[in-house]
Design a protein that fits this description.
Helix content is about 30%, strand content about 25%. It is an alpha/beta fold and about 575 residues long. The longest helix has 20 residues. The protein starts with about 25 loop residues before the first helix and ends in a 21-residue tail after the last helix.
Length: about 575
């Protein structure tokens, strides 16, 4: 999930893509879908309740959640859009995942020049259940190296490792990328690149044959507190099933607290802040920490099948072309208790709200005039475990990426009343954003660019996996300039949620929540999807986007495939509910 970030000001965009003039039918704009705040609330209240046990992947709560989503898609009036089995579409797409749990007690210890330092899981350190296929982590006095930001970026003439061989060692790296604190440099300034994400740092450690990697947690560059790290990394881990998992995962992956890292470096005669300053420079070289790490714990690993849930509304004239509404149904399940003993990580905001939105989009489209292109409603699994359900879909699309018009993702919607503005995660430039801004103006609302691109929001939700295969994709974010209370109230709510509820058991439904803003956001996203579904154009990324080449290649695939076959759309199933509108 990408959680709500503070906003200090409204930025009116000056980067509309003049190079591309998309034309959408005016008739599509006239339809204004109405969304029921009561139905939106009921979905959130249900999925975010204790009865759904935090919607953990591969638990009994998954079965219950999937059953609920299918029943609601049926009631909405759409049809199955998942795997084809014996010639018939199913409601789900099977997603094979590697599941891993730490079993037994963990022995975790640093040995520094001043002696042994015992570590407690979830306190000073958060190690993950291994995802490289092994059933045991056994590191015995492995040397440790401080590797700066852990980045190798040849196109930026940057290499934190130089000629230092880290095979068989544990590397300690900083979160985010070298430009974070100074706001300028070789990585594009304040906005985080993918090199700043912890996922990249794990991948690079594996590529270099490291025995382990520990990311140093600091709240500001991570953009979340230690509780989020602890709760997200000390429970069941998942990954897509890989042919060679050891190429993607070192034996040990985890995080350590900032002060733990500072003490380790101090014992080696190195000042932590001085080491950070050195890591910002291109001439940085890895530093011997003069310490070792010992880690022993067992793991239970198995391959399980999770499920993406997929609804489909076939298009009237071009059913082979699709618009996707996506969001993740999972959360963290049952985990470590907080002070009051609560162990259920309900995920009411993250992401019962996004799923509620998708269900009601299905209802609105099914009850309106049938659009020309097909609409896919995609509720993906295992987002909280690394965007896995959407990554599996992107690698194994049910509907070809080349003929997917765009993806509108929702990951945490606004439940604090109507907003004067709206945003997206990250600072990507693409035609979909231009269209969103234009439709927002029809509501009398303004676009607020993400004022905290250093948080890496673009890489933290399910639209990112779609973008990697070229599909234009945005993750919508509600505004913080609230009609009731303005920016000051919006920022206060954002801060309170991030500190006390994000990835914590207190992300629970609140009777005080006001769904009027979410309903207005749903109407905005409906208008965008409707224009895409009734249009003829193929949105693209900006010319300088790293995703442009993949999209351009898909355009060549579309043109090379010849005219679409004259397929007849299947009739939608009749709604099981008499509700309308």
């Amino acid at each position: 999930m990408i959680f709500i970030m503070e906003r200090s000001h409204v930025i009116r965009p000056a980067f509309l893509l003049a190079a591309t003039a998309l034309v959408f039918p005016a008739a599509a704009v006239a339809q204004q879908a109405q969304f029921s705040t009561e139905r939106l609330k009921q979905h959130v209240q249900t999925l975010g309740s204790d009865a759904y046990e935090g919607r953990g992947v591969a638990t009994r709560a998954e079965t219950k959640t999937v059953d609920y989503l299918i029943s609601q898609f049926k009631a909405a009036g759409v049809q199955p859009g998942g795997d084809i089995v014996n010639g018939k579409r199913q409601w789900t797409q099977k997603v094979p995942l590697l599941k891993s749990d730490i079993v037994g007690t963990q022995h975790l210890e640093f040995r520094t020049p001043t002696g042994a330092v015992a570590l407690n899981q979830g306190q000073q350190i958060a190690v993950r259940a291994p995802l490289n296929g092994q059933r045991e982590v056994a590191l015995n006095a492995v040397p440790m190296v401080f590797a700066g930001y852990g980045v190798t970026a040849p196109e930026r003439q940057w290499d934190d490792f130089k000629d230092v061989d880290v095979r068989g060692k544990v590397i300690v790296v900083l979160v985010n990328d070298p430009d974070f604190e100074g706001g300028e440099g070789n990585f594009g300034g304040k906005a985080m690149t993918y090199y700043g994400r912890w996922t990249y740092k794990y991948e690079e450690a594996a590529r270099r044959g490291a025995a382990g990697v520990l990311v140093v947690h600091e709240t500001e560059p991570a953009s979340y507190g230690w509780n989020t790290v602890k709760n997200s990394n000390t429970n069941t881990m998942f990954d897509i099933v890989r042919q060679n998992p050891r190429a993607s995962h070192a034996p040990l992956e985890g995080w350590i607290q900032r002060d733990v890292a500072a003490n380790l470096l101090r014992d080696a005669g190195i000042d932590f802040e001085a080491a950070k300053q050195a890591a910002k420079r291109r001439d940085f070289r890895p530093m011997d920490m003069k310490s070792t790490f010992t880690a022993h714990y067992g793991a239970k690993t198995e391959v399980i099948n999770s499920q993406n849930v997929v609804g489909l509304l076939p298009g009237k004239t071009r059913p082979d072309e699709t618009v996707i509404y996506s969001g993740h149904w999972d959360h963290l399940g049952i985990g470590l208790p907080q002070a009051d003993g609560d162990r259920i990580y309900n995920g009411a905001l993250d992401n019962a709200t996004g799923i509620s939105h998708i269900l009601e989009q299905a209802r609105a489209f099914a009850r309106g005039p049938r659009p020309d292109r097909s609409i896919v409603f995609l509720a993906v699994t295992a987002e909280e475990k690394g965007l896995l359900g959407s990554e599996y879909y992107a690698r194994n699309p049910l509907y070809p990426a080349a003929k997917t018009v765009g993806v509108l993702n929702t990951d945490s919607m606004g439940v604090f009343g109507r907003e004067r503005d709206f945003s997206i995660s990250g600072t990507a430039k693409l035609d979909l954003l231009d269209l969103l801004i234009a439709e927002g103006r029809r509501q009398g609302r303004t676009f607020t660019a993400d004022p905290h691109p250093e948080s890496g929001g673009f890489y933290r939700s399910d639209h990112f996996t779609m973008a990697k295969v070229g599909i234009p994709a945005i993750s919508f974010k509600p505004g913080l300039n609230l009609v009731n209370g303005g920016i000051a109230r919006g920022e206060a709510i954002s801060k309170e949620y991030t500190e006390k509820r994000y990835h914590q058991p207190d992300d629970e439904y609140q009777p005080s929540w006001d769904f009027s803003g979410m309903a207005e956001d749903a109407a905005l996203l409906h208008a965008v999807g409707l224009r895409l579904a009734n249009g003829n154009d193929w949105p693209n990324w900006s010319q300088d986007s790293e995703f442009r080449a993949a999209r351009d290649q898909s355009a060549a695939e579309r043109m090379g495939s010849g005219p679409a076959p004259a397929a007849q759309p299947l009739p939608a199933e009749q709604p099981q509910s008499g509700e309308r509108g």
